[in-house]
Design goal:
CATH topology of the largest domain: Growth Hormone, Chain: A
Number of strands: 0
Strand content: under 5%
Organism: Mesorhizobium prunaredense
Helix content: over 70%
CATH superfamily of the largest domain: MFS general substrate transporter like domains
Radius of gyration: 20 Å
CATH class of the largest domain: Mainly Alpha
CATH architecture of the largest domain: Up-down Bundle
Pfam families: MFS_1
Protein name: Major facilitator superfamily MFS_1
Subcellular location: Membrane
Distance between the termini: 18 Å
Largest sheet: none
GO molecular function, one term: transmembrane transporter activity
Shape: globular
Length: about 400
């Protein structure tokens, strides 16, 4: 009976963490159509907006750095509760900021809450996987993309009809309600002995000597730079350079996330059938083609379609690269994973600010064309992800 109760709790925990992935994606997606509003509401340049986005990334990286330490002390369930409930108010704080200095503080807090949620929910998903003895990570990221699709699709229309503050308030209320219910059913890790925990902590901060893990991290970086560029700049690109209104501009990231969600829900099956390296190669080519067409598109609807095609490719690239990082020979999975995730997330959190600096003196079109070139480089390096090929004994159950 105890085993049955533990399994039922794990199943509830599986859907609870999926709901938090959904809420995190929803908050992130809802931010995308707010970006053009920040530009006009605060009467700032693209350069200044790039600095604000950089602060969002700085907050996220800072929280991610400390989040691992907090999880080792308090467990992913408790840390996810804190960051989740606080993070649901992040967008509203940004929307309320009346000037650039307060907006800067708000962006740092918003980024920190989203980044902390991200690390904690991924760690909790791993705990659920071990308890269930089966993978749930790909579909969990699918729920994140589904939330991003909903946040992006509804955001532009809501802002245009009801204003940015009303939109932020509704997003906050929905995210808080989902997270408040979900955190009640999260499961906790089995506490390891103290000595073992200290040993794990030491291994976590060890610097790997194998250069292959850094090359895999570089591939993750190039992939997630492209993802971050669509999140932060696609709406502004459609509005300023292709002449569409805010409601249609918000559909760029929505289409990108919606297609990514579908592909992530079926990604495990695709990868098991064709192999990690082949899936990565084809995915990188598809993503590169989509990004290239988006950068050269003469109309907003072609650009939206191209961003969706790009999402079709990018969807399973990051999970494969993370898996490759966590299965490097001669190092613990945590050490390899920490290198690849840190390098990868710097692409989605920090690099988009550099795009804003470049766009201030150029335009977004050549930037998206250049990003397609980075995805071609990932295609050429795809063989380095061979450690992500399926291994039946890679994740033993607790």
């Amino acid at each position: 009976m105890d085993t049955l109760n533990r399994m039922q709790a794990a199943i509830r925990g599986r859907w609870a963490v999926a709901a938090i992935f959904l809420a995190n994606g929803f908050l992130t997606g809802a931010w995308a159509p707010q970006i053009p509003v920040v530009l006009t509401r605060l009467d700032i340049s693209k350069f200044t907006l790039g600095l604000l986005i950089l602060l969002f990334g700085a907050g996220a990286v800072t929280a991610m750095t400390w989040c691992g330490h907090l999880i080792s002390r308090h467990g992913s369930r408790n840390v996810l509760r804190w960051f989740g409930l606080i993070g649901s108010f992040g967008l509203l704080v940004v929307a309320l900021a009346p000037n650039v200095p307060l907006a800067a503080i708000a962006m740092f807090i918003f980024g920190g809450s989203i980044g902390g949620m991200d690390v904690a929910m991924n760690a909790n998903a791993v705990t659920v996987e071990r308890r269930l003895s089966r993978a749930i990570m790909s579909s969990s990221h699918g729920f994140w993309s589904l939330g991003g699709f909903a946040g992006g699709a509804l955001g532009g229309l809501a802002i245009q009809n009801y204003g940015h503050l009303a939109h932020a308030a509704v997003v906050t209320a929905l995210a808080f309600a989902v997270i408040a219910v979900a955190v009640r059913y999260l499961i906790a890790e089995n506490k390891p002995p103290q000595a073992s925990s200290e040993a794990i902590g030491h291994r976590k901060f060890a610097l790997p000597g194998n250069p292959l893990v850094y090359l895999v991290g570089l591939m993750a970086l190039m992939t997630m730079i492209s993802e971050g560029a669509v999140l932060d700049w696609a709406a502004l690109y459609l509005q300023q350079e292709l002449g569409t209104d805010l409601a249609v501009a918000g559909l760029a990231y929505a289409a990108f996330s919606g297609v990514m969600a579908v592909m992530r829900f079926v990604g495990d099956g695709v990868r098991n059938r064709f192999g990690a390296v082949m899936t990565l190669r084809v995915s990188a080519l598809v993503a590169a083609a989509g990004m290239l067409v988006a950068g050269l598109a003469p109309s907003p609807w072609l650009a939206i379609s191209a961003f969706a095609f790009c999402g079709f490719g990018i969807a399973n690239m990051v999970p494969i690269l993370f898996s490759a990082g966590g299965n490097q020979e001669g190092m613990s999975s945590g050490t390899g994973m920490s290198v690849v995730t840190t390098m990868g997330y710097s692409g989605i959190l920090v690099a988009p600010s550099a795009i804003g600096f470049i766009a201030e003196h150029s335009s977004f079109s050549p930037i998206f064309v250049a990003l397609s070139g980075l995805l071609v480089v990932v295609f050429l390096m795809a063989g380095l992800a061979h450690r992500a090929e399926f291994a039946p004994d890679a994740a033993p159950a607790e």
